[in-house]
Every structure is written in structure tokens, then in C-alpha cells.
């Protein structure tokens, strides 16, 4: 636990020292949503229906390109090697890294989402559902991205490779997340979709850190 | 934790191929407590690869490294190991002090990395003047001195694997490094080191030469 907190603090400190990444990603998210609104046209009843999908696409598109750089500083500085020769479990570091990434990269998107909802003419009554589904979905996406980044560490064109690996696996998150929003929009029960989404995230939470730790060790062995 | 001092680290039949070229073939050897081994050989002979295999960061194509009859490296037994490769292992966005504290956490030696560490007495590599600056602002030599200061946090009988630790070091720090290496082995620590230009008075107990089969 202590090691987890140490890694988390180091990661957050690193993110705060170089906030450019976070701002660029947030800008990208806002831009894609804005383009989506312009492309879909102003008729507001249609926009609201596809707006949910648009918000998810914008979130996915803005998150995925940055995954490649998740372990970049640790790998290039040799810190990862130091961790791998140490008695500390690598999966704890992976989990701390994912948690740090969630706080620094997913939380800003969640904070910006009410504004995006206004653009997309979504009723603000939907805000709790959107926050819950997007919040869970982004957690799952980051866990997948952590694995994708580890598998493509040191590969040329790692960003594209990681995206190709991660995006298909994120389909269940996308479907459950959008369904939850649509159910709320048509005043149907939301809970089943959110529960399925939460189950998917829990599954990833158990499996991904171990798999990612293994992938990082393999990357070092081949590096 | 005391028992590993009597145990021998040995490697048997280590073979490694890189890109179809045989770097070393059925290499046997051992490293006893207190022993200082200088690993030499021409560029590309596989010195770094050999050290990475002993550190458990790479896997040999054949053969194994063992500590007596135990699997090695076995992170659970807590045999301390310090690895210093070409990369310094310092996170660029953290300060030197934060990096050293993080390193101490990783190796579970928090007690040595008190907030005021290193004191004047401990500061072998004279890092106090820049220890609170972010690491990315430092020069190569300063980075190297910070990385070497990690060795000061090591347990006395640890196994040190140092790959060209002299790179970018000034004369004073080289002297400090030699002093540290001698002290480490005198206390029963073990060391395998590669250095291209060893100082004149460098006296390893043994020289291990990789000839480079290519």
C-alpha cells in the first residue's frame, strides 16, 4: 500500500510538472466534441440522441493517442529496470500508474463533460448517469491502455499499435456506457447497464495489472 | 537475511545469441562474498547483456544463474541487488532528493533516506548542492553522481552490478567511486563491474573477459 502511494505521488508530481500533455488532451476532447456538433447540424432532437455517442467517441479519441507515452519516462530513464530488479511487485506500480493517469487525464474530461453536454443539447438531468458511465468507462479504458502501452513499449509506431490493440477491446465499455446514457434519455432503467459496465471494469482491474506487469518484464528482457 | 553472505552466486552454461550472432557460449563462473570482478572485453562482446542476465533483466538462451542451489534472481528472498546501467534510473521530473527517496522505498530501505540525507559525512559524491533541483536540469555527470549515491543506500552485503559507472564522472567522483567499491568488497559485498578506462590503482580480485565470438 505504501509503495502504491509512493508511486502514485511520484506520478502525479510528474504530471503536474508537465501539464502540457493534460491540457492538449483536454483541448482535443473539446475540439472533437465541437466538430461533432458542427457536423451533426443544429436540429436539437437529433443531436441529443447521437450526442451521447459523440461524447464517447471524443473521449476515446482523446485518450488513446497518449497511452503510448504512459511508461516512456520510466523506461527511458532506466527507472523501470530499477523497479524490475527490486523486490517490489510490478503490478502495484502498474495500478498506481493507472490511478495516477485516471486522476490527471480522466478527471479533467469528466469535469469538462457538463459543458460538452450543453453543446450536445443533452438535458443536464442526465449528468449523474453520464458522469457514472464515462467515469467507469474511462477507468476501464485506462486499464486496457496500460496493457497496450506495456505491450508496445519500445516498438516503432507504438502509438498506432497501442490504439489498434486497445480500441477493439474497449467495445464492451463503449456499448454499455452509451446504452446507459440512452436508457436515461428515454427514462428506462439505467442500473443494469451501469452494473454491466462496472463488472467489466472490475474484471479489467483484477486481470490487467498482472498482465501488464508481465508485459513490462518481457519488454525489459527484449530491450 | 544473513545467510546469503555465505552463499555463492554462480552461473552455468550461459549462452546468448543476439541477431544470429553468438555473444557468449557456455560460460561458467561464480562470485563469492567480498569479491570484485572486472568484466572486460571489446565493444559488442556482450558485457551489458551478461550483467543484465545476472540482474535478472534479461534471459539467457541457455544456462542459468543460481545462488547456491536457489533460483536467482529470486525477489522474494530479499537478497539485495543494485543495478546501474547506462541509463541512470532517475525520473526526470522529480528532484534528486525525491528520486533517492523513491529508490530507497523501492529497495525498502527507508531508514537511510531521511529528509536530511545525505549529511556532509555521507555525501561521497557531493550531491547536496544540486539535490533539490529537478533531475532534467542536471548535467550528465551530476546525474551519474546522483545515480551512484543510490549505492550508498545499499545494504552492506548486496550484490552490485555496475555497467560503466565512470561515464561522465569528474576526477573527484571517480576517486570517491573507487573508495566506495573497495569499502563495499571489504565489507563482504560483491561486485561485477565494467569500465573502459579503469584508474591506474584499480585492483579487482579477478578479471572476467568476454572475447566476443563474432
Task: Tell me what you see in this structure.
- The complex is a heterodimer of chains A (223) and B (214).
- Chain A has 223 residues and is mostly helical.
- Chain A is 82% helix and 0% strand.
- Chain A contains ten helices and no strands.
- Chain A has helices at residues 2-17, 20-40, 44-63, 72-76, 79-85, 90-119, 127-151, 158-169, 171-185, 191-222.
- The radius of gyration of chain A is 18 Å and the shape is elongated.
- By secondary structure, chain B is of the alpha/beta class.
- Chain B has four helices and nine strands, in the order βββαβββααβαββ.
- Chain B has helices at 47-55, 96-106, 140-152, 171-186, and strands at 9-18, 21-31, 36-40, 62-67, 70-71, 81-84, 159-163, 190-194, 206-209.
- In chain B, the strands form two sheets. Chain B has a five-stranded parallel beta sheet, with helices on both faces. In chain B, strands 2-1-4-5 form a four-stranded antiparallel beta sheet, covered by helices on one side.
- In chain B, helix 2 (96-106) packs parallel to helix 3.
- Classes of the chains: A mainly alpha (223), B alpha/beta (214).
- Chain A binds chain B through residues 2-3, 6, 10, 13-14, 17-18, 73-74, 76-79, 81-88, 220-221, and chain B through 55-59, 73, 75-76, 78, 81-83, 85-94, 98, 102-103, 105-108, 134.
Amino acid at each position: 500500500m505504501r509503495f502504491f502511494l509512493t508511486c502514485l505521488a511520484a506520478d502525479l508530481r510528474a504530471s503536474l510538472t508537465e501539464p502540457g500533455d493534460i491540457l492538449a488532451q483536454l483541448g482535443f476532447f473539446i475540439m472533437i466534441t465541437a466538430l461533432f456538433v458542427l457536423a451533426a447540424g443544429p436540429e436539437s432532437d437529433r443531436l441529443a440522441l447521437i450526442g451521447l455517442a459523440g461524447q464517447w467517441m471524443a473521449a476515446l479519441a482523446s485518450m488513446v493517442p497518449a497511452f503510448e507515452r504512459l511508461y516512456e519516462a520510466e523506461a527511458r530513464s532506466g527507472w523501470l529496470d530499477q523497479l524490475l530488479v527490486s523486490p517490489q511487485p510490478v503490478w502495484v506500480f502498474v495500478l498506481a500508474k493507472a490511478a495516477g493517469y485516471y486522476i490527471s487525464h480522466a478527471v479533467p474530461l469528466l469535469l469538462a463533460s457538463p459543458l460538452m453536454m450543453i453543446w450536445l443539447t443533452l438535458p443536464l438531468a442526465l449528468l449523474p448517469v453520464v458522469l457514472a458511465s464515462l467515469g467507469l468507462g474511462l477507468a476501464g479504458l485506462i486499464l486496457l491502455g496500460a496493457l497496450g502501452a506495456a505491450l508496445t513499449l519500445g516498438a516503432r509506431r507504438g502509438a498506432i499499435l497501442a490504439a489498434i490493440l486497445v480500441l477493439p477491446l474497449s467495445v464492451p465499455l463503449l456499448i454499455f456506457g452509451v446504452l446507459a446514457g440512452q436508457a436515461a434519455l428515454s427514462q428506462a432503467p439505467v442500473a443494469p447497464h451501469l452494473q454491466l459496465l462496472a463488472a467489466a471494469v472490475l474484471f479489467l482491474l483484477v486481470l490487467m495489472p498482472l498482465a501488464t506487469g508481465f508485459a513490462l518484464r518481457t519488454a525489459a528482457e527484449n530491450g | 537475511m544473513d545467510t546469503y553472505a555465505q552463499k555463492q552466486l554462480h552461473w552455468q552454461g550461459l549462452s546468448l545469441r543476439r541477431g544470429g550472432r553468438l555473444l557468449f557460449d557456455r560460460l561458467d563462473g561464480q562470485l563469492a562474498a567480498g569479491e570484485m570482478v572486472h568484466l572486460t572485453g571489446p565493444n559488442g562482446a556482450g558485457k551489458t547483456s551478461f550483467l543484465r542476465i545476472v540482474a535478472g533483466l534479461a534471459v539467457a538462451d541457455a544456462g542459468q544463474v543460481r545462488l547456491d542451489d536457489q533460483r536467482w534472481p529470486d525477489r522474494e528472498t530479499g537478497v539485495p541487488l543494485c543495478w546501474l546501467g547506462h541509463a541512470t534510473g532517475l525520473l526526470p521530473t522529480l528532484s534528486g532528493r525525491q528520486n533517492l527517496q523513491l529508490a530507497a522505498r523501492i529497495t525498502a530501505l527507508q531508514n537511510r533516506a531521511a529528509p536530511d540525507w545525505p549529511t556532509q559525512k555521507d555525501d561521497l559524491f557531493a550531491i547536496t548542492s544540486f539535490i533539490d533541483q529537478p533531475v532534467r536540469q542536471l548535467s550528465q555527470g551530476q546525474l551519474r553522481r546522483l545515480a551512484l549515491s543510490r549505492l550508498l543506500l545499499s545494504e552492506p552485503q548486496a550484490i552490485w552490478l555496475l555497467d560503466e559507472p565512470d561515464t561522465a564522472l569528474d576526477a573527484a567522483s571517480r576517486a570517491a567511486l573507487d573508495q566506495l567499491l573497495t569499502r563495499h568488497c571489504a565489507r563482504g559485498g560483491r561486485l561485477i563491474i565494467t569500465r573502459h578506462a579503469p584508474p591506474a590503482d584499480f585492483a579487482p580480485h579477478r578479471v572476467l573477459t568476454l572475447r566476443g565470438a563474432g
